[in-house]
Design goal:
Blueprint (H helix, E strand, L loop, with lengths): L1 E6 L2 E6 L3 H5 L36 E2 L25 E2 L2 H7 L6 E7 L2 E3 L5 E3 L2 H17 L5 E3 L3 E6 L1 H8 L4 E7 L13 H6 L3 E10 L4 E2 L3 E7 L4 E2 L3 E4 L5 E4 L2 E2 L24
Antiparallel strand pairs: 1-2, 3-4, 5-9, 5-10, 6-7, 8-9, 11-12, 11-13, 11-16, 14-17, 15-16
């Protein structure tokens, strides 16, 4: 099954068995139609100057990570090999953490291949991957961190970039990703539109304000700010904000506390409602 993930760089479709699925930041394939520019009425655009929802789904290298340290756990010499181009899946978030001192959740994915003396990639046995996971776990513990091993080939650790940087450069990792600790990005709720657009861990949520007298909708506008891993569903919905203004959303995100669903403000409207002239 393919799944949409929306980032500030645009929409990305990935398989359900990919790294993103293990991150827990994916939503179903019906989730973010509005954010991916598939609405019928809202004129939505992808996030990052954007409509409904956008973290930073663009893949790519995150620049230079620190070289593996000298004080490696016993029997873990493989950790000393440096990756020529550390791959961060969430480029914008990976860049942001370099300039802040906030703890974030780092998802470290262990490579299932290694390079032999001839420069060829060789598939690792399950036992060899497990040894690398164990070594990486012990190394993180030596750095004073508390890693959490997830399955066979990935580790999650809460840390600042400075704390985890020495590990990010090892060739034992195939890639890494960054998210809010415990997927708790609720601080985004307090961002205005400008701050939301500037924070790679937040996404802008847009809808169309309803004119209940004329029974039509206005231009697409900023309705609130969500965490990058908010859950949204492809379900045209009506909501009312704290000021009493009704909104129409072609795809509703459930995590905004100040925009609860309210079908009463749209009960007399056609769906989708007509645009105000």
């Amino acid at each position: 099954m393919m799944t949409w993930f929306v980032g500030k760089g645009g929409c990305v479709m990935v398989g359900s068995g990919s790294w993103w699925g293990r991150l827990g930041v994916l939503v179903g394939s019906v989730a973010l139609q509005a954010a991916c520019g598939e609405t019928e009425n809202s004129g939505s655009q992808g996030a990052g100057g954007t409509t409904s929802a956008g973290g930073s789904g663009t893949s790519g290298g995150a620049g230079s990570a620190g070289a593996p340290g000298d004080n490696l756990p016993a029997g873990c010499e493989m950790l000393a090999e440096k990756h020529p181009d550390p791959n961060c899946i969430d480029y914008a978030r990976c860049e942001q953490v370099k300039t802040e001192n906030e703890p974030r959740a780092f998802y470290l994915f262990i490579a299932d291949t290694a390079t032999d003396e001839a420069g060829n990639d060789v598939a690792l046995r399950e036992q060899e991957i497990a040894e690398r996971v164990d070594c990486l776990e012990r190394w993180l513990e030596q750095l004073g961190l508390e890693p959490d091993v997830h399955g066979l080939d990935d580790i999650v650790v809460d840390a600042t970039f400075e704390e985890v940087e020495p590990v990010l450069g090892t060739a034992v990792l195939s890639a890494y990703s960054v998210a809010c600790v415990d997927h708790d990005c609720d601080y985004c709720f307090d961002h205005d539109e400008k701050a939301c657009a500037a924070d790679a861990f937040c996404l802008e949520y847009r809808g169309q304000p309803l004119d209940e007298t004329l029974e039509c909708v206005g231009e697409v506008a900023f309705a609130g700010c969500l965490g990058h891993d908010a859950y949204c569903a492809q379900a045209p919905s009506y909501a009312r904000d704290a000021a009493g203004q009704c909104w129409w959303f072609s795809s509703y995100c459930y995590d905004l506390p100040h925009l609860p669903l309210d079908e009463t403000c749209g009960e007399s409207f056609t769906d989708p409602p007509p645009a105000c002239l």
